[in-house]
Amino acid sequence: MFNNQQIMDLPKHSDISFKPLADKALLHAQLSSLLFYIPLIGALIAVCYFNEAFANNAQTYLLIGMPILVAVSMLYNMISVRLRGFAVRNHDIAFKKGVIWQQVTVLPLARVQHMEIHQGPIERKLSLASIKLFSAGGVSADLQISGLTHDDCKNMRQFVQNYRQDDTTPQATLVDE
Amino acid sequence: MSNTTIEDQVSPIYWQKVSPWALLYFVVHFSVRFVKDGLLNLLPMFVVFVTQVENKLFWAQVAGGIALVLLFVYSFLYYLNFKFCISSDNEILLNKGVFKKERLTLKFGRVQNVNIAEPFYFTPVNLVNCIFDAAGSVSQEVVLPGVTKDYAQQMRKQIFDFKAQQQEEIQNTEQSETDTIENKLSISNKEIAKFGLMSNMAILAIAALAPFINLIVDFLEKQIITKVEGFYQQELGMLASAATFAMITLIILLVLAAVMLSVTMSLIRFYNFELYFKGQKFKRIAGLLERHQLSMSMDKVQSIVIKQNLMGRLLKRFTVECLQASSGGIAAGAAAKKNKQTLVLPVLNSEQVDSVCQWIYPWFNSKKLAFKRAERALLYKNLGFYSLLPSALVFGFCFIADINTLISLGVLVVFSGLVTLSYQRCGYYMHEDNGRFYMVVRKGMIGVHYRVFELYKAQSARSISTYLMRKSGLKSLYIQLASGFAFMPYIKQQDADFIIDFTIKQIESDTRSWM
Q: Is A22 helix (H, G, I), strand (E, B) or coil?
């Protein structure tokens, strides 16, 4: 039978101090949201312009609803980016995210199968990038961290590539990182 | 297999060709691939053919003849270019392709299994297909068709010996292998037929017919329903309800046909099922048209699933699956199953489940394990979302539509019952056995589903919590495995944190190979 005794030197993921995302991560999130809402608003304006019946019925609701939706979305982005954080430890990478459902994922480096670094047009302009870390068996990437600086992403990739499981360092020190 | 060796001009390695009988395999293989992948692409051409061409029979014969000749020529050229060799670096090298020449290199260390398949067309000449499974990747699979059984077994031995040398641990296992007794399990074909009733193969068969549903319905209406209706009218004099009876008869016949199809498919797949377990290795032989031999080392098994669905519960039977790594995603998982990388023990009664579990995990006994349940907050949440809310909606609908509102009470009772059953099934259990740590996660509603895995094989761990859960000191736990995942909702925060930390420590400190 399994014995759930207190193990003193067990590194606790709840003690990890997470590093916030890059400064421009919030700007990136807001711009990405706007990139979704602006064409949507444009399309709705076009529909109202060409379809008078629709305009008469929906114009008022849209005029009130759309700004609220955009404002809520912006506010959500602010909270979401603030709640995100990552930590690279000697043997794993931890990432926390989520506003309503808060998640903390710990991915051991020994289980990383491959990595991808993505840079969209907005990310390139802001010198940001996203990194995806894949392990075996997952539906998609186990960890997807967007809003990092491109240099951070490259460093992280290098760190994961250089990792060897037998490079053991005292586990207790990991917690303090 | 022909033993003629062709010396390569560039390297001193010796290329071998497979037996000329392998041509049969290539013809069958490319025919199947054509039907699976190419037929849909030819659909526009088929439509043009049906609507525009006049002398259909003649041109169909011409097209069929040309396709057949092309198939044989392509298969022959493929056979000519198909060469393999076992290099001194312990790799299988394979040269193949007609238009696009490929060289495939598969290191012995990456081979997960060496399977031997005996297709029916090779039976008279005593040849087999030797299949090398690489870790989770279908494209990396190497098949040597038309080799002798001895050669295939020798290959298997060579690869397993190499892998055994690589890992000292496996060497120890090999040592103990000679001392252990071989366990055997046979499943009768009558039992296999029950798997047809339990599995969803019939649904899959019906789903495959979905694109042709209009044609089928038209055909059934014209050919069968009118005749059955006429029969009821003439023979039984049921003028008023003949159409209804005809429809019911048809539905019953369709269900029976689907069940029969499912049973047949099960028998084709698992006919004369034999399972051997010796020295931490499974060997399974089964199949009607193709006797497929699958070998699997327990080291490669990522998790074991023991499940019983509604039909299984009625028949008192379980299905056990030993899952290997899938390289990612549902598609890869399905491919791994299709690729026969999953060892399925289709129908076992509870005694057989216990005895198989005794071979693998002597500590495992589903009836005696003290599972730790989810907290009651999960029950209250699920009752609210999946029982109260739907019944309130039904009540509202009944009220508006002026239907008896007692229906909503029925919905409440039934849904509450199901939610409670689901809550009661939900549980986890952790076990330590000879310094190895295991976790069992149980879920289900009417049936039951256990997933057993060794903690160090996990890929990543995650905790999930909402504001209310954090207030109540609760968290949900998600452990990603190389074959599926384990999810345990609403457990105490300190337990979830401990399991995550402990799992991560196991992964990071255990130097054993996980795949």
A: coil
Question: A46 vs chain B: nearest CA distance in angstroms?
Answer: 37
The Cα–Cα gap between B304 and B451 comes to 6
With CB atoms and an 8 Å threshold, state whether A111 touches B507: yes
Query: Which tens digits make up the pLDDT trace of B33-58?
Result: 887 777 767 777 777 777 777 777 88
Same-domain check for residues A159 and A130 = yes
Per-residue model confidence (pLDDT) at position B204: 62
* Beta bridge partner(s), residue B306: B320, B450
Could you tell me if A100 and A63 lie in one domain?
Answer: no
Expressed as residue numbers, the domain containing A69 is 25-81
Instruction: Compute the half-sphere exposure of residue A129: CA atoms within 13 Å on the CB side of its CA.
Output: 16
Domain limit, last residue, from A61, A81, A101: A81
- Whether B5-166 and B301-373+426-509 share one fold: the answer is yes
Give me the pLDDT at residue B7, please: 38
Phi and psi at residue B148, in whole multiples of 5°? -75, 155
State how far the Cα of A96 lies from the Cα of A76, in Å rounded to an integer. Answer: 16
Residue B376, C-beta contacts closer than 8 angstroms, at least 6 positions apart: none
Measured between CB atoms, does B247 come within 8 Å of chain A? Answer: no
Residues in chain A closer than 8 A to B458 (CB atoms): 111
Is-contact B337 B149, C-beta < 8 A?
no
Query: 3-state class of A9 per DSSP?
Result: coil
> Which of A4, A103, A136 faces B459 most closely, judged by CB atoms?
A136
CA dist B302 → B167, B295, B337, B343, B486 (Å):
18, 15, 14, 12, 12
Fold of the B5-166 domain: PH-domain like (2.30.29)
Number of domains in chain A: 2
B337 interfaces chain A, CB cutoff of 8 Å: no
Interface size between A and B, measured as CB pairs under 8 A: 116
Per-range mean pLDDT, top range of A161-175, B90-104, B202-216? B90-104
Answer whether residue A8 is part of any domain.
no
CB contact, 8 Å: B431 with chain A? Answer: yes
Identify the CATH assignment for B301-373+426-509 out of 3.10.150.10, 2.40.30.10, 2.30.29.180, 3.40.309.10: 2.30.29.180
Residue tagged 């290199």 (tokens) = B105
Is the pTM higher than 0.80? no
Q: Where are the alpha helices (DSSP H) in B327-444?
A: 329-338, 350-360, 376-383, 389-401, 406-425
Extents of the domains making up chain B: 5-166, 200-268, 301-373+426-509, 376-424
Residue A128 has pLDDT above 50, yes or no: yes
Co-location of A118 and A157 in the same domain: yes
A91 and A75 in a single domain? The answer is: no
Mean pLDDT of the region B144-150: 88
Do residues A153 and A143 touch, judged by C-beta distance below 8 A?
Answer: no
ipTM of the complex: 0.85
Q: Please give the Cα distance from B495 to B477 (Å, whole number).
A: 9
Looking up residue A108, the CATH number of its domain turns out to be: 2.30.29
What integer pLDDT is reported at residue A18 of this predicted model?
Answer: 94
Residues B466, B490: Cα–Cα separation, whole Å: 10
Give the tokens for residue B279: 């020295």
Considering CB atoms only, which of B432, B497, B511 is closest to A12? B497
Angle at B416 between CA B413 and CA B417, to 5 degrees: 85
**Cα end-to-end distance, chain A, whole Å:** 34
Q: Which of B464, B501, B509 sits opposite A101 (nearest CB)?
A: B464
